[in-house]
Specification:
By secondary structure, this protein is of the alpha/beta class. Helices cover 40% and strands 16% of the residues. The protein has a 6-stranded parallel sheet with strand order 8-7-9-10-6-11. The radius of gyration is 22 Å and the shape is elongated.
Length: 351
């Protein structure tokens, strides 16, 4: 079954696509013409910047070349047969309505497609899958776990980053989200946090709703400001391209073509975590970050993150990255502090 990853990264075609990783000199090829030769219908089939064709390429592991209504499919025999059937079926639908990413996804599911590695990885560059590029520069993973985390975000529709403070979980997720937005892979960013105090009762907070929840969301804003600048974040927020909201506001929504980050997920309840994970729509990517050693829920309340780690551990298509103390990239003292607390809590645990 095709993971949403293939459809969620639609606009990578703007720069052109190299032959798929599984294309070999022995690959078969197939020529076909789609009739009638109608430029409007062909544009509908291809999608913006040929994004629909690129999604089919990634889903089936083939290469599609076309000029007008003439197409050449290159790849394994079985895959190009599926590609031909998909193109003919979708083209038949273009005479009735506008083809959407959801249509591509459902068609590939019918063809039994499997998601292929993203084009950035297939190109095999030195930084492929372990760095992200934004207008402010390149953000690279420093440790092996950070590189694995970036790779998981790039290659999975749902990724978990779990580990101690200072390991770059939130920062790298926001950097990946900014890159996806700037490359038009998604239409908006949705950054979410549970509104739970860190052991303190903040009481009544003055101001409107935005001012009341601002303290909980400040770390996400800080990362956005660093990568996009204050003015651009403000403009994008006004247009709802960037949305930063407490978790409670997510109920009842379906988020399509979005990059969604749930930060501080250790403070979600079981119900909240399930609710969040079922918000993911077509063409969306979700990243969940948290530190299960810093849970601020009431003592009797189980953590939704810890529960999800157990429930989803064997579900295909979900990436898990577990950070260690050695991955802390803040002040050297932070790493020492984390180790000291881990050692102390280990001694205090009943045998």
């Amino acid at each position: 079954m095709l993971h949403l990853d293939a459809v969620g990264r639609l606009a990578r075609a703007a720069a052109g696509l190299k032959p798929p990783m599984n294309a070999t000199p022995q690959s078969a090829s197939l020529d076909l013409s789609l009739e009638p030769d109608d430029s409007a219908r062909l544009a509908n089939l291809g999608g913006p910047f040929d994004s629909h064709l690129r999604a089919i390429e990634l889903g089936l592991g083939i290469e599609i070349r076309n000029r007008g209504n003439r197409f050449r499919l290159v790849g394994p025999h079985t895959a190009i047969a599926r590609g031909e059937a998909a193109l003919r079926e979708l083209y038949a639908q273009t005479g009735e309505r506008v083809i959407t990413p959801e249509d591509i996804h459902l068609e590939l599911v019918e063809r039994g497609a499997q998601a292929q590695p993203p084009a950035d990885e297939a190109e095999g560059g030195a930084d492929a899958g372990v760095s992200v590029r934004t207008r402010r520069g390149v953000v690279r993973g420093r440790s092996a776990q950070q590189k694995a985390y970036l790779h998981n975000i790039a290659s999975h529709d749902l990724s978990f980053g779990i580990g101690p403070a200072g390991t770059g979980k939130t920062y790298l997720a926001v950097a990946s989200a900014v890159q996806a937005l700037e490359r038009d892979r998604v239409r908006r960013l949705v950054l979410v946090r549970p509104a739970v105090e860190a052991g303190e009762k903040l009481g009544f907070l003055p101001g409107d709703m935005a001012q009341k929840i601002d303290p909980y969301l400040r770390p996400l804003y800080d990362a956005l400001y660093e990568m996009l600048g204050f003015e651009r974040v403000a403009r994008l927020a006004e247009r709802s391209v960037i949305e930063v909201a407490p978790l409670a506001f997510m109920r009842g929504r379906t988020l399509n073509e979005s990059f969604i980050i749930l930060d501080e997920a250790q403070n979600t309840t079981l119900e909240q975590m399930k609710m969040f994970l079922t918000r993911i729509g077509f063409g969306s990517v979700a990243v969940v970050t948290g530190d299960i050693t810093q849970i601020d829920l009431p003592k009797a309340q189980p953590s939704g993150l810890k529960h999800a780690m157990q429930v989803l551990a064997d579900v295909p298509g979900i990436g898990f990255t577990y950070f260690r103390n050695e991955d802390v990239v803040r002040h050297p003292l932070v790493q020492a502090i984390v180790r000291a607390y881990d050692a102390h809590e280990g001694r205090d645990k009943p045998q």
